[in-house]
Amino acid sequence: MDTESHADADGVEAVPDVFLQQGPAGEETSVQQFEIEPGATVPEHSHPHEQAGYVASGELTFLVDGEEIVVAAGDSYVLPGEEPHAAENRGDERVVGVDVFAPPRTDPDWAE
């Protein structure tokens, strides 16, 4: 079993006020932690990986295929691979959550 502590690690500021931290990767999945400050936007993008996530705190608005989908603390979601999506923190609280990618996303462009 592989474990990884995120307690003392800093995330990468992928875009302004959006912090991502690569977690462990197995043969079939990888884990990523995210923190998104109030007012921050993750621009529209896509990737070949299926993305399943959980919001631990805050509220995140996804923009998918012209629809706005609000995901609040305690909610989870799944995005198919290759589906263009964006996200915005329109609230006053930092959004914190975890994403799981399949197949593993071990070399995201933001980690460069």
Poorly predicted parts? none
Q: How are the strands ordered across the major sheet?
A: 1-2-3-10-5-8
Overall residue-averaged pLDDT value: 93
CATH superfamily: Jelly Rolls
**Portion in strands:** over 45%
User: Structural class of the helix and strand makeup?
Assistant: mainly beta
Number of strands: 10
- Assign the CATH class: Mainly Beta
Which sequence of SSEs, written as H and E, runs from N to C?
Answer: EEEEEEEEEE
Shape, per Cα inertia axes: globular
DSSP helix count? Answer: 0
Q: Please outline the major beta sheet.
A: 6 strands, antiparallel
> Alpha-carbon distance between the termini?
27 Å
How many structural domains? 1
Can you walk through the features of this model?
There is one protein chain. With 112 residues, the chain is an all-beta fold. The protein has one domain: Jelly Rolls. The chain is built from no helices and ten strands. The strands form two sheets. The chain has a six-stranded antiparallel sheet with strand order 1-2-3-10-5-8, with no helix packed on it. Strands 4-9-6-7 form a four-stranded antiparallel sheet, with no helix packed on it.
What are the SSEs and their pairings?
Layout: E1 12-15, E2 18-25, E3 30-36, E4 41-45, E5 50-57, E6 59-64, E7 67-72, E8 76-79, E9 85-88, E10 95-102
Antiparallel strand pairs: 1-2, 2-3, 3-10, 4-9, 5-8, 5-10, 6-7, 6-9
Keywords:
single chain; Jelly Rolls; 6-stranded antiparallel sheet; 4-stranded antiparallel sheet; 0% helix
What's the quick description here?
The chain has 112 residues and is an all-beta fold.
